[in-house]
Design goal:
- 2 copies of one chain form a homodimer.
- With 333 residues, the first copy, chain A, is of the alpha+beta class.
- The first copy, chain A, has 2 domains: 136 residues, 60s Ribosomal Protein L30, Chain: A, CATH 3.30.1330.10; 158 residues, PurM-like C-terminal domain (Phosphoribosyl-aminoimidazole Synthetase, Chain A, domain 2), CATH 3.90.650.
- Chain A is 24% helix and 25% strand.
- Chain A has 8 helices and 14 strands.
- Chain A has a 7-stranded mixed sheet. A 5-stranded mixed sheet of chain A has the order 1-2-7-5-6, covered by helices on one side. The first copy, chain A, has a two-stranded antiparallel sheet with strand order 3-4.
- In chain A, α2 packs parallel to α3 and α4 crosses α7.
- Chains A and B meet through β1, β2, β5, α3 and β6 of A and β1, β2, β5, α3 and β6 of B.
Chain lengths: 333, 333
């Protein structure tokens, strides 16, 4: 907590700096120190993963999804990027008094649909109702567990020459939410990318150790996630701007709102760092899946710029892409 | 959802009617239908349990604990009453912008202390910060998993003659919280019973199938939990009023506030239904533990009053103790 004590109060930006920033100094233990999207534990020689996420998105219904679909997808994706096949979810709902039953039913139906699509099951749940005015509408926590197949062990170490892949366009979720909040409900086909990725990621299991690691670039976007990967390693990560798949509508809306799609949350994207020789084959497997049609090889691991992320522009110039500093968009997920 | 649609809006009372009342109609599956405090799943022949709970208690600091100790204890207890040895917890925090760091540090320290005391570990976590005014201070979700020892399988079926035991006084937690909220900060030693019960409950494992079932009487108190146990069975549950351990301060404050300790939340209590012949031995084991000093045999399973809970008063009269109807105390846990 020492490094935090300079702020006496929690700021909005504290909600965006990785999953565990507050917990580590007090709850010190080897599971948390791995700083992963989930914790690996062993049961009779099987590797299992546990993860948790709370969702406070506003608005709770948005083009492409709602808080229920988001909560199920997010936890499934945290398990899937750890290499696990998601199995069981828990569902904790905190609901404001006066919330409408028909909206609750829509959200539960969306949760059930997403679970069925992804082949997971909500095995346990809890609801709390808070008096009107003491919270805003509905917050959801989903925790989940899943098993890593015996033959799929990522090395989790990157090497120079490794390629960086993504399964599609960046910034769709956060831009959609911001557009809704700003009242920019223009005639737009802009939708959240919110989706469970376990079916897509399962296609990558046969690549085994050629997959170094995977991460879902949610809060803080691709830039933040790549910085977290590079940090503390001897390698830099170069992104090739011309290969970064970005929808024109996302770029346009980000320009209006003064945002950079690189820092905007995604909810149906996976970043994959893979051995160079397997990258093209992985790309074609990604493209074979509906959630990977716009997949690209977006960069590579280099020996220059250790610990840094660098964007190589379409004109060949390079600039450091830092961690996001200061306030981030609140209630994006 | 059909039975709920008569209310168009969520009421405070919806937060108190058991863990799953909203989910069942939509998320229908065999895990949820068991209506237990957690879900049992199997890994290579081992029985594991997963559970979740959100905590919105107000005030967040109270005599005997705080929201952190409560969140860890509550989830540990849900696992322990399912017969599991709690192992791994997740921790999801939703924090209002402006919340003080020193309070957060106190709560995290309390979480860590409770975990160490109980021998569990927070393996994964998440924080979200919500703009000021869109929620009240701090909400916590803890989910947990644990393993049921191979030699401890409760029958989970009650039989006439079985005895009902509790490890101590009733209503302490809820009464403490209400007292704080009503500003009745009298010179009182009234404290929440909030505590992890896994160490106590582990002492009962050697009784094996003589333990029919266990439940923690949290929201809705002993009366609600016993009603849930009796419901749908061919048996009634009789409680002997003179054996119900109740602190004079709890009775007194409940009288002032117009409450009944039987319906008040406990956070460090376990109800045990056990084979009659083992009841006295179980009682003495409970009493040997600091969290069971005030344990009592409080009633028995009978063939009369099928599906009902009945209180036998000190004068020998009997009255039905119903499920709580209408609004329950909000934000007790």
């Amino acid at each position: 907590m020492k490094t935090q004590m300079k702020h006496e109060k929690i700021l909005l930006s504290h909600g965006s700096g990785g999953k565990l920033s507050f917990f580590l100094p007090v709850l010190e233990n080897p599971y948390l120190e791995s700083l992963d999207d989930g914790a690996i534990f062993s049961v009779k020689g099987e590797a299992w993963v546990m993860t948790t996420d709370s969702y406070v998105v506003d608005p709770i219904f948005f083009p492409g999804g709602d808080i229920g679909k988001l909560a199920v997808s997010g936890t499934i994706n945290d398990l899937a990027v750890m290499g696990a096949v998601p199995r069981y979810l828990s569902l904790g709902m905190i609901i404001e008094e006066g919330f409408s039953f028909s909206d609750l039913e829509k959200i539960l139906t969306s949760i059930q649909d997403t679970c069925q699509q992804a082949g997971v099951v909500v095995v346990t749940g809890d609801t709390k109702v808070v008096p009107r005015g003491f919270m805003d509408k509905l917050f959801i926590n989903t925790s989940g567990i899943g098993r890593i197949p015996d033959n799929f062990r990522m090395s989790r170490k990157i090497q120079a020459g490794d390629k960086i892949l993504i399964n599609g366009t960046i910034g769709d979720h956060g831009t959609t939410i911001m557009g809704q909040r700003e009242g920019l409900k223009m005639k737009s086909s802009l939708t959240s990318d919110c989706a469970p990725l376990n079916d897509l990621i399962r296609l990558l299991h046969p690549f085994g150790q050629a997959i170094r690691m995977m991460r879902d670039p949610t809060r803080g976007g691709v830039a933040t996630t790549l910085n977290e990967i590079a940090e503390g390693t001897d390698y830099g990560l170069i992104m090739w701007e011309e290969n970064l798949p970005t929808k024109a509508e996302v770029s346009g809306l980000c320009e209006i709102l003064g945002l950079d799609p690189l820092y905007i949350a995604n909810e149906g994207k996976v970043l994959i760092i893979a051995e160079s020789s397997a990258a093209e084959k992985i790309l074609s497997v990604l493209k074979s899946h509906p959630l990977g049609e716009d997949a690209q090889i977006i960069g590579e691991v280099v020996e220059e710029y250790p610990g840094k992320v660098v964007l190589e522009t379409q004109f060949g110039s390079r600039r450091i892409i830092d961690m996001l500093t200061g306030e981030q968009l609140p209630r994006i997920c």
